Automatic annotation (TrEMBL):
<dbReference type="InterPro" id="IPR043502">
    <property type="entry name" value="DNA/RNA_pol_sf"/>
</dbReference>
<keyword id="KW-0472">Membrane</keyword>
<keyword id="KW-1133">Transmembrane helix</keyword>
<protein>
    <submittedName>
        <fullName>Reverse transcriptase domain-containing protein</fullName>
    </submittedName>
</protein>
<keyword id="KW-0812">Transmembrane</keyword>
<dbReference type="InterPro" id="IPR000477">
    <property type="entry name" value="RT_dom"/>
</dbReference>
<dbReference type="Pfam" id="PF00078">
    <property type="entry name" value="RVT_1"/>
</dbReference>
<feature type="transmembrane region" description="Helical">
    <location>
        <begin position="115"/>
        <end position="134"/>
    </location>
</feature>
<feature type="domain" description="Reverse transcriptase">
    <location>
        <begin position="1"/>
        <end position="226"/>
    </location>
</feature>
Amino acid sequence: MERVIKEELVHHLEKIKFLPKEQFGFRQGKSTTTQMIIFQEHIVKEVSAGKTIDVIYMDMEKAFDLLTFQEIISKLKKAKVSGKLLKLLIIFITQRKFLVKINKSKSQTTDSTSGVGQGFVLSAILFIIVFAQISEHLNLFKEILHFIFADDLKLVFSYYINDFDPTILQNILNELFKFCSEKSITINPTKSVHVQYGNPNPNAKYFINNAEIERKDVIRDLGIYIKNDLSMSQHIDMIY
């Protein structure tokens, strides 16, 4: 039953073009591979042009669990989901229960009060419906690109060293943090990462909620370890 509901919902969302092009998760014709190819092609193009590219890999803390029911239902209505489909989804969202089991001991059954649930067929698609507002917000800022896979978000800021203005990306990060806080989406600054590609710029430092984002030379992006020269040697060494 849940799979049938999901197929109907996905068909509706794709038909009305509700989901942003930047979202590569859980969609037909899109995958981690397609995102990685498009992202790396962009980085190579910008590096070849002599630019510096600062990429912020954002960590969304417990994103699937912390969304309010009100926020989820509101976004379903914005996506023009209505009638019996909406009623079924509201029941699924608001009438879940859970318990905790440790060895042979079980807690009392408790009503779920937030989130889209973990491990359900519908969980991922409900989440990316809500997360679509992140793309809508970020598309207001023409100075950056962004890429999303489910709740994995990266911001891409390219510039020539002589034109570097740290306030451009910093202001966007400030606005994004404020926007997410208002929407019950928590950004974790201590787990977010800054990777710089191309022309090195030691002056590029960025902050989330006054906490400096750690800069690294290697990042695990969508399951693959990539260096800031786009080498995957570390990932290959780990496999072999």
